[in-house]
């Protein structure tokens, strides 16, 4: 079993990583006999894991209720989130309750935001079930929902009390979702750790085959890298922005094509290549490194271009609403080498358009 601590003073919490954590007992969850809790999940996860988890929680004498939301990025909004509040009120949950998010980033982000706002804040536990949520979304306390005009536009920084990562969950994950998670994994290598990037080049086949030892190392390394960043800059005033490599482009794609049509990780993959092209045009990034990135993303079965029906100019209005915009200036995360990235402002929009066009026509 791997354990990492996120050190944030009185809001510190553990991340526990192991195979089979959801199998035998609820003892890994920070809940005791007599505690109230509300489990939040979706239809897909309910069919796979809900019954088992409820049985374990009942055995541990936890008073557990649950709410099942519809499955999909298109349901990550305030009106669906309201179903969590309705369930909590119907079952008379008070401030002492704990929410449990059982699912991917969509369930985790919505449950976290519900926990941040229900009766002005209750505890919540992350039980991430996708690779993307195990390496990224469940860690660091970004919670929230989409608005039809922009991704993740409404939310709060609100840390969970514990993150429980059962790597066995990945065995039921569709291959397209596994690939989407790999986009965030590869992102860590590009922005923070060239050795890890090289390790990914060497171990990608084992990752795709879900080799348990390789998977555990991969998830652990990503969590370690993210934790270090979050501990330094919890609310994204500076270096946490680096974790958004490719995301300015990605959020434009996701909003433009309609939530759920491109998976978040797929849009991030295309966005990473757009960021690499932008950096190359500025003379800051070597084309051999762009090629290494493209090759790795392709091997992970990820797209390396944006949607064919989205022209470069179409990205701009979405980019101007990006949360990284400061006083009308878009801030971009640009790779400078494999393992090193920087936040840049004042980049000429024509360069960004040129980067997208060059990529789309390549
Ligand atoms: P998701 O939550 O939509 O899950 C992907 C799909 O896989 C869903 O259909 C889900 O039901 C299914 N699924 C989940 N676990 C499964 C399992 N073990 N077996 C079978 N099916 C399973 O998508 P995601 O990629 O996990 O998360 C994407 C979301 O996370 C986006 O909304 C993104 O904005 C957000 N995100 C948040 C952060 C953060 O820091 N809070 C970071 C990255 C991404
Ligand atoms: N996924 C980016 C962040 O958590 O900051």
Automatic annotation (TrEMBL):
User: Membrane-spanning regions, if any?
Assistant: none
The free-text cofactor remark is: Binds 1 divalent metal cation per subunit. Can use either Co(2+) or Zn(2+).
Name any GO cellular component annotation.
cytoplasm
Any one Gene Ontology molecular-function term assigned to this protein's record = nucleotide binding
Which residues make up the binding site for Zn(2+)? 184, 247, 264
Cofactors that this protein relies on: NAD(+); Co(2+); Zn(2+)
Q: Quick one: which residues bind NAD(+)?
A: 71-76, 105-109, 129-130, 142, 151, 169-172
Residues of the 3-dehydroquinate synthase N-terminal domain: 67-179
**Which named protein is this?**
3-dehydroquinate synthase
Q: Does the record carry Protein biosynthesis as a key word?
A: no
Q: Which SUPFAM superfamilies match?
A: Dehydroquinate synthase-like
Question: To which species is this protein native?
Answer: Candidatus Pantoea carbekii
Cellular compartments annotated:
Cytoplasm
**What job does this protein perform?**
Catalyzes the conversion of 3-deoxy-D-arabino-heptulosonate 7-phosphate (DAHP) to dehydroquinate (DHQ).
> Which top EC class is named for this enzyme in its record?
lyase
One biological process term in Gene Ontology? chorismate biosynthetic process
Q: Please state the protein's primary subcellular location.
A: cytoplasm
Keywords (alphabetical) are: Amino-acid biosynthesis, Aromatic amino acid biosynthesis, Cobalt, Cytoplasm, Lyase, Metal-binding, NAD, Nucleotide-binding, Zinc
List residues of the 3-dehydroquinate synthase C-terminal domain: 181-325
Annotated catalysed reactions: 7-phospho-2-dehydro-3-deoxy-D-arabino-heptonate = 3-dehydroquinate + phosphate
């Amino acid at each position: 079993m791997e354990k990492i601590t996120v050190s944030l003073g009185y809001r510190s919490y553990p991340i526990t990583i192991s195979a089979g954590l959801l199998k035998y007992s609820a003892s890994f969850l920070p809940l005791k006999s007599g505690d109230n809790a509300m489990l939040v999940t979706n239809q897909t996860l309910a069919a796979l894991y809900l019954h088992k988890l409820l049985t374990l929680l009942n055995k541990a004498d936890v008073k557990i209720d649950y709410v099942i939301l519809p499955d999909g990025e298109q349901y990550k909004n305030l009106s669906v989130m309201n179903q969590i509040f309705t369930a909590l009120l119907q079952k008379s949950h008070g401030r002492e309750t704990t929410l449990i998010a059982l699912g991917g980033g969509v369930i985790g982000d919505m449950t976290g935001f519900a926990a941040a706002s229900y009766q002005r804040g209750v505890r919540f536990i992350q039980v991430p079930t996708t690779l993307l949520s195990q390496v990224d979304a469940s860690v660091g306390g970004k919670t929230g929902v989409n608005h039809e005009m922009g991704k993740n536009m409404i939310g709060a920084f609100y840390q969970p009390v514990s993150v429980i990562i059962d790597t066995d969950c990945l065995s039921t994950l569709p291959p397209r979702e596994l690939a989407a998670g790999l986009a965030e994994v590869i992102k860590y290598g590009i922005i923070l750790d060239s050795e890890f990037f090289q390790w990914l080049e060497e171990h990608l086949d084992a990752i795709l085959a879900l080799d348990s030892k390789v998977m555990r190392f991969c998830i652990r390394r990503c969590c370690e890298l993210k934790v270090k960043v979050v501990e330094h800059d919890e609310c994204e005033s500076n270096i946490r922005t680096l974790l958004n490599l490719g995301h300015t482009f990605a959020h434009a794609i996701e909003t433009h094509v309609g939530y759920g049509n491109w998976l978040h990780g797929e849009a991030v993959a295309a966005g990473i290549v757009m960021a690499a092209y932008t950096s190359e045009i500025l003379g800051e990034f070597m084309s051999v490194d762009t090629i290494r990135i493209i090759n790795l993303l392709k091997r992970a079965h990820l797209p390396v271009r944006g949607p064919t029906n989205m022209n470069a100019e179409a990205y701009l209005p979405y980019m101007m609403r990006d949360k990284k915009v400061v006083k009308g200036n878009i801030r971009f995360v640009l790779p400078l080498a494999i393992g090193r990235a920087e936040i840049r402002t004042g980049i000429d929009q024509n360069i960004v358009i040129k980067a997208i066009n060059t990529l789309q026509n390549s």
